[in-house]
Amino acid sequence: MKEREFWALLEEVFGRVYGRSLAKDQRLARLDSMTVLEALDAGMEPRVVWNLLCDQMEVPDSRRWGRDHNAPPLPAA
């Protein structure tokens, strides 16, 4: 997942205003309480950040990947 895909999904799933607020304010417990923005700025894989945010916000799999419901491929090891 590219960062631009992350932002597109964030807006689609949470809405533009609420999604941007989450990115700035929501602290991710499993990332030492970094915000979404801090995690991305630190170089975290956007797909990992997305999954952690969705887990924390209890977004079901049926909504997690937007309209197409297809998860992007896992990053290469």
From TrEMBL:
InterPro entries membership: DUF3046 (IPR021408)
Pfam family, one: DUF3046
Protein name: DUF3046 domain-containing protein
Source organism of the structure: Bifidobacterium xylocopae
